[in-house]
Task: inverse folding
């Protein structure tokens, strides 16, 4: 019950932010706003810096969200990403040296980014963390965190898999050192209440991902559920299940067009949807409101964008938005 209350609170806060995006301060674009008012002048520049890899479908949606908010509010948004924590820290340092008006950063490896984020805060640049690293966000001086609580999302996923009759799970971790992924598996273990085994794979090698999952299913026929933590891995897992002749079923974190298709086909039970478009969009709104009106959101707690769940009951509706890169 506690987790549901937290989730509802996060959704409510997200709703407030979205309303602010529609009716709050306007920016510096040359076009008039929808209500035909004259845009306010301003020069807010925001650097969005994530740990996503090039071409990753998940992070492309985050990027679209940030850029959409920037266009609508007249905020200059630059997006950069690097999966290497040291390189990501340098991107933050570069943004500080450029004296941007705000920084949005994901923290898959918080400790590696600590000094860079604290230096940004010392320089008077408001920082909003997104997606991962919420436990260290306030400690590092960030004004808010936007995302889902991974342990809560994992726990809810574990409960759904248990309700689906699964008895042994394989939780596939695709990025070494990403604390959020381990939190997802730990949460799933709590919610599932049965045996959950972790399997480490490399997201950059899809062929090896499929081979490793297939080998595990062949060696341990008791595994009847595979929890992927990434859409690409989910597709690889579904293929591995077919290759192994296993009766296991896949569930996954996060959503893309392939997962939508797989849910429709019955190859994926459900997707845990953290609505990453909002993780790009809402921080731009929050930084704009902070600059123009000294507003803050969250009250020191994360602004939650998930978990939501996409399954056969609602996949057709969500699919409409996945086509335009916003889900």
Result:
């Amino acid at each position: 019950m506690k987790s549901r209350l937290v989730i509802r609170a996060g959704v409510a806060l997200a709703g407030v932010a979205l309303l602010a995006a529609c009716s709050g301060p306007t920016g510096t674009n040359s076009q008039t706003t929808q209500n035909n008012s004259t845009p306010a002048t301003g020069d807010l520049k925001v650097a969005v810096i994530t740990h996503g890899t090039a071409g990753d479908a998940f992070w492309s949606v985050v990027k679209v969200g940030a850029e959409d908010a920037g266009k609508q509010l007249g905020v200059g948004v630059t997006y950069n990403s690097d999966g290497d924590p040291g390189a990501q820290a340098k991107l933050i340092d570069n943004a500080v040296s450029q004296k941007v008006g705000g920084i949005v950063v994901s923290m898959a490896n918080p400790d590696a980014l600590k000094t860079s984020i604290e230096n940004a805060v010392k320089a008077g640049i408001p920082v909003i963390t997104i997606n991962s690293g919420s436990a260290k966000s306030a400690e590092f001086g960030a004004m808010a965190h936007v995302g889902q609580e991974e342990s809560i999302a994992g726990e809810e996923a574990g409960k759904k898999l248990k309700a689906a009759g699964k008895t042994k799970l394989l939780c596939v971790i695709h990025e070494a050192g990403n604390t959020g992924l381990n939190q997802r598996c730990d949460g799933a273990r709590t919610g599932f209440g049965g045996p959950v085994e972790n399997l480490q794979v490399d997201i950059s090698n899809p062929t090896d991902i499929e081979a490793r999952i297939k080998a595990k299913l062949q060696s341990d026929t008791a595994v009847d559920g595979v929890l992927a933590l990434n859409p690409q891995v989910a597709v690889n897992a579904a293929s591995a299940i077919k290759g192994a002749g296993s009766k296991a079923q896949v569930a996954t974190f996060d959503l893309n067009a392939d997962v939508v298709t797989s849910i429709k086909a019955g190859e994926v039970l459900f997707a845990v949807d953290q609505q990453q478009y909002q993780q790009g969009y809402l921080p731009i709104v929050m930084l704009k409101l902070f600059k123009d009106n000294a507003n803050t959101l969250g009250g020191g707690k994360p602004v939650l964008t998930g978990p939501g769940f996409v399954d056969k009951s609602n996949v057709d509706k969500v699919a409409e938005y996945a086509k335009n890169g916003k889900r």
User: Anything to note?
Assistant: The CA atoms of residues 228 and 314 lie 20 Å apart. Residues 2-148+274-296 form a domain with the Rossmann fold fold (CATH 3.40.50.2300).
